[in-house]
Every structure is written in C-alpha cells, then in structure tokens.
User: What shape does this take?
Amino acid sequence: MSKPLLLLFTGVAIGALAAWGLHPSGQAHADVACPQVTAPAAQRAGLEATQIRIIVRDELARALNGSPAAAARPDPDDGSDRAPIVAAATPEQLRALDDARRLVEAARGTRRWTKDADSRLQGLMPQLDDAQRNEILGDLFSALNRDEIVPDFAGGPLSR
Amino acid sequence: MRKVFCGCAVALMVTSVAYAGKTLSSPVTVHRNADNSGSMTGSLGSTRNSADTTSYLSCSTDRYGTGSPQMHCSATTAAGVGGYCHSSSAQLVTAIDSMPNDAYIVVSWDATATCTGISVYHDSRDEPKQ
Assistant: This one.
C-alpha cells in the first residue's frame, strides 16, 4: 500500500471514529444511558448502607474500646464476621454498656464499690450481651482482686 | 435421786461422744498470687459461724433473657482480704447450682478474674450453719 493511500485510510478511520463519538447511534445511546439512569439510585442506597454500617461500628468500637480507631473500618462490600455482632448491638445495649463502664470507672475513682453501684449494675446486666457482661465483670472483678476497688458493704459484686 | 441424775448425765456424755464424729472448722481463706490469679477456700457453714462479722463466702448463678448463664464467687476473710471471679462456663454454672448448702469449696481464678475451676466437697466433717 502506497503512503498516500495509507494516510487517506487512516484519516477516514479517525474521522469515522470521531463522528461516532459525537453522534452515537440510538441503540448505542440506549445501552449507555440505561446504567446511567439506574446506577445513581443503586449507588445512593449502597452508600447509605455503608455509611450506616461504619457509623454503627464506630459507635460500637467507641463503647467497647474507647476509640473508633480501635475497630478497623471495614470494606463496604466485605462480609466480615463482625457484622452480626454489630447487628446485635442495639442502642439500648450500647447505652447500658456505657452506664456499666461508668459505674466501674467511678468506683476506680473513689476506690469503693457501693451497694448502690452494685444494685445499678445488677439492673444493667440483663440488657448486656455475653461479651459485654464478661467485659464489665472482668474489669470490675480484676480491679477488686488488685484492691483498686473495695466493696464498702458486706458481700461481693452482684450480691444480695 | 442424785444417783439417778448422775447416771443420766454419764449416759448422755457417752451418747454424745459416740455420735460426734470427726469435725472440721474451715473458715474462708483467700490466696492471691503475684499475677492476680488466686483461689478461695472454706466451708459455707464454718464461714457463717465465724465469730467475726467480716468473713464471707458466696457463689451465685445468673440467668438473663439472652445469653449464657453466668456464675460468680466472692470471698472475704476475717482479715478483710477479698477474692472475686466470674465465668460463663456451663460446667461451673452447673457445679454452683448443685452445690449443697454447707459445702466446702475451693474456687480458683486466673489473672483476668475468670473462674477456672471449682471443687465442691460433701463432707461429714464440715459443720452446718448455726
């Protein structure tokens, strides 16, 4: 093929591609347009779910560990095993956990475990899940065994 | 009359000796290790019958609407030394639930205050609560 012919062929090809890009056919337009119409709604729903998941996990991490950074921010599409735990942590549970942790922290501050604090903790225990109960009792009982907290009544924690 | 009285007294003494048996007084003790683990021992009856007003030994089980049953034990000696542990081990919960009223018990815990074991003694030597 001679050089002029090659240049002519190349020029025609470029022109055709440019024309198609500026004015695509109706069929091609429809193919592109459909995802563009439906995608934003799907993406919006996905983002909302992701944001909610992140917020809930951050709140749970703050309640459990004191810092959102303590829990790794999940990939939006992951099916990690932490998801069921998050789903089980209701706002009431998080509030009860927060209250229970404050009771123990207050006792650390005064070095006393009072009957009133004990009664309050007994009232909160049914609202917690197993892991939360173990966290609170482990924290309290360990502090008692180290004499960081001392009961100021006859008996131990969760007593009559 | 006096001879009859003396005879009765002797008879009562003999009877008393014959049915006494070996007895033990086992008030609560608490042992703490450097790593924060430890153990508590004692009989509920002897601890209850201690002359002081500080000694205390107790184990309880808890059941809630959700989750596993839990148990916890607490002890305070006459000198005021305390020991505390808890667990959701089904075996330990069962042991506490079936513990006799005047048992002698040994409860151990680890550095996290988790109960790791309990021994329950049904022993004729242990005194009942008065």
User: Anything to note?
Assistant: Chain B is about 25% helix and 35% strand. The beta strands of chain B are 29-32, 38-43, 56-62, 70-76, 82-87, 104-109, 115-121. Chain B touches chain A at residues 32, 36, 38, 53-54, 56, 58, 60, 62, 64-68, 70, 72-76, 82-86, 88, 109, 111-114 (CB under 8 Å). The longest strand of chain B covers residues 56-62.
